[in-house]
Amino acid sequence: MASSNLPGRNALPVMCDECHRLSPEPLRQSLLLLAVCITGSAMLVPAKALGDEFHYRDILIGDRAAGMGGAYTAVSDDTAGLYYNPAGIVHAGDRNLSGSVNAWHETSTTYRDVLGDDDWRRDSAALIPNFFGIVQPIERGVVGFSFVVTDLIREDQDQTFTVEEEPWEQFTINLNDSQTEYKIGPSWALELTDDVSIGGSLYVYFREQEVINNQLVIEDFGNGGPPDTEWRYVQDQNDEWGLRPVLGIMWDVTDQWAIGASIRGTQIISADNYNILICHGSSATDPPDGTREAFLCQEGEVRHEESESDTRREHPWETRVGVAWFHSPRWMISADFSYHTEHRDVVRGRTVQATWNAALGTEYYLNSRWALRGGIYTNRANTPSQVERFDHVNYVGGSLSLARFSRNSSITLGVAHSQGSGQGQVLPVDRPPQDVRASSTSIFLSSSYNF
Amino acid sequence: MLIRLGILLGLLMVSGVLAAEDTRYVQSERAEVFETPAFDAARVGELQRGDPVERLSEEGDWLEIRAGELEGWVSTLLLGDSEPSARVSPLHGDEELEMEGRRRASAVATAGGVRSLEEDEELVADENVDVDQLHALEAQGVSTEEAIRFLHERDEDAES
Amino acid sequence: MTRARGERNPARFAGSWAWRGLAGFLALCLMGVLAPAAAEEESSPRDRLHMLAEDPRTEADLQAEIRVGREVAARILARDPLVEDPELQRYVNLVGSAVAAHGDRSELSWYFAVTDSDEVNAYAAPGGYVFVTRGALKEMRDEAELAGVLAHEIAHITRRHIVDALDIRAPEDSPLAGITRFFGGATEVARVAFSEAVDQVMDVLFEDGLRREDELDADHHGLMLAVRTGYDPAGLPRYLARLAEFEEDDKDAVETVARTHPPASERLEALERLMEEQGIDGLEQPAREERFARHVR
What we know:
heterotrimer, B: 160 residues, alpha+beta, SH3 type barrels, 2 domains, 23% strand, C: 297 residues, mainly alpha, three-stranded mixed sheet, 14 helices, 3 strands, globular
């Protein structure tokens, strides 16, 4: 539980050019505006997601792959290949492989100067079973099976702000955001010629999201009467599942160069969207002036709205193209470029912009027992750069991992960190967009075994 | 942060590369050292099993080495990357066997009682194998010392 | 606006970070370029260093090799029993052990056997078990030939041809592997693998043969080993020449050898080249014809 004791309004630093923002009740107003915007009104403004819906590279997948910044489409010759480019798994040779990755994943988004002069920060941290895969050669080709967690957010924010002035005020926000996106399914790959192979994975895709926001505003005028209390509760739930096929091709152009490509799309089969809003209004949150109507409940009003739909949203087509250079058994380098198409998200009521991502990775063996991997990558937003409602933050990240090999197994410890800045709109749209800084860190521990 | 990691990484790599030493160990009972890389070259010395040698250069199946004061050429067939391990017997108690001068007949008897019993019983059950014959084979093994003595026995045709 | 305060410029913030990342990445690549491209063997370009690395053999690997070899030996003896001639067996063991002592696997106990078969053949099971048939012995004229044939078989064992071809090794006993095995239930797999390995070795010895390179490698190292032991370098080549004649005239007698080895003529050529290269074609070392005649009748 984070608790901030903010100074009274008289103690707030007042800068000349910002005087207009410090209107009679600046902090209270800011908090209320923030509260309203995060929660949104049931049908009109969706709950703010932490950003996962706005990006495609929140978590790097795989063992070697994650260390190399996800630049793996032209490598793909182990279990992680099932996800990046299933055609590559033919190069796993005659080995049976299994690999699993666990990651500690942390994200943080800071909206600057939202609370008067103070930032508003949202954090998430979770232990993720990032990846599990097995690969096995069969008579014709290679088969595999994998489980991939492409996004996971566990945000639990309890924050109380107190204004120690007359009238005494307290604002409590309790936000729980839980999102999981995972894919599970079989793969098959086949060598067409000595140099060309194709492969496919058929993932069943699941996504579960539940955001619950509870807010309480208490105002005590110190006149002996009961304190004025406003409460609102908003729950937003979106579950969906579908099929997500991946098709890949791998071409070993020369002894040292390989090119890989994969394309994937998602067809949602079933979706369940549920939304509930309950609020109890009080004088504490009546608009400071008549111009704003965004507040949910008028004084004395009790509102209850509930809605449910099975509207299925679209997902983008994603194309990955990669090239790898196998300089020597000691060293290799790999690069990926991916493009995500524009599509319509009816649930969020937005057009998801087309975007692209790039990654560059390398692997270097210190000796036959130790290998070092490094990479850089982008994680670009699919929101408009002219921010209206949704954050627009483009991340740039780097990853580093160290692998230790023993006879039949390897163990890898790595870290990936990305950060970026941009703009968001957590205050009403008539306000200028707020600056946003965001960062994401994963520490991953993985093991692979061949037998 | 990343720069510091980079430096650390660089140090790791350099140390990894430098760590590759070039010491070999004599694997055979004895290894003759020749002046030039040929069996008919002049002999400059002899090394014993387990002796470490420093690799100077290589030519085909021959390695130019230094061992203390001694420098010359040794056949690569006789050298290995790691120290020769102790003799391992299919029968129990390798060290015991070594001490007994590898007297097989008695060793087989004890082996049956100690480790191989279970293993051999499994084998007996299999009609494709002949455990008695196997024991007879293991009983007829000779020690290295015996064999070397036999090798150097002067025979009427030895000089032919 | 916030940015007007100038303290935290978001664009610059992201930019400098990206540059540092790029610099770090380039540094990593540069180190890769500067690193010596190690002497790599022929392999797929995708093979990584840890796959190519010579894996240090553990005591447990050695035990696994011996265990498999020992069962193979027991199976070979069930097909063709020992010739009941202790004198002869002892003689072959003395010659074989003397040669083996000059090789680089002194950790093994060596066993040599003359088996009761008319076929002309010799074979080696992993772990130090070497067999030569009565039929093969009949075709030999001196001890250098016997030493040459045994040395070829010893070389198969010292060079671990079968062990590597079939990947005979003990299950990994690192804690990590232990955990993985525990969850994967691989202990049973190891048991199955053992009896499978024995079957496979039998197939290699009597049906499929080893790779052509391995046979030539055994000839090469076997010849050098016999020379190193002090025998006439021409022992093995003389024997092979006789084998070549058989391949022309009496195919049945050398059926298994012919199926599992490259043609004797090809092997002979390679050995002659080797002797010339090594300058040992004129090397005068004893063939011990008379001692051979005394022990082998």
